[in-house]
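Hi support team,

I submitted a single chain yesterday and got back a structure, but I'm not sure I'm reading the token output correctly. Could someone confirm the output below corresponds to the sequence I sent? I've pasted both exactly as they appear in my results page.

Thanks,
R.
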Amino acid sequence: MYNFDLASIWGWITAVYQIIAGVLRLDPAVYEAVFAHPDASQLALAVLLVVGLSISIGHSAVLFVNRVERRRFILSFVVTAVTFVFGVLMLTFAIWLTVVILFEANTPFSEVLTIISLSFAPFIFGLFIIIPYLGHILEYALRVWALLAALIGVFTIFDISIFAALVSGVIGWILFEIVSNIAVLQTLEQWLWRKGTGQAVYVESQEAVDLFIQEIQTAVSQSQPSEGSSV
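Hi R., thanks for writing in. Yes, this is the structure output for that exact sequence:
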């Protein structure tokens, strides 16, 4: 079903499209096809780059609503890329550690990294996280989708039961969420935001929309003649 011909740029584009579509369908065969290919790690990296590009586009909208200066866009994109890669590595380590310790599986870290990289395919829709009021719901939905993809990948590639894959994925994801939300990392994230954008406070998309509407209403009210004034 999956045939990856990487002899040309178009072949790479087709392969990445097939992989992302397969992961979105939660198809176990796509993991088997990738791992059977000699360039499995490169394919996973290509998928991760495309997903990262989508997230970066959404991030550019965040920068826009926060009115970030143009010269800080590049720095902010670098910060976003570093944060994204760190998150992938952290989740990979959490799941790998769970598999090795709890189920004593002889699992190479690089193979887990390949699975997690592929499992981030649902975040191809990450650019829509900026949508006001619906962005948070979409983000959580994509997280669940990616977790399901990771569970299927772990179960398909490694010689463990579906129960072991489920426990490893869930515990790994819980560890990832706990570490991601500790005060030190949140402080670091805020510091990187201030350095990257020059903005002291992060304004979410819905907040920006509300502020924008308020500014329009204020401008309209100021432009109208006050009561009692002569016409």
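A quick pointer for reading it: The chain has one domain: 9-223. Let us know if anything else looks off.

Best,
Support desk
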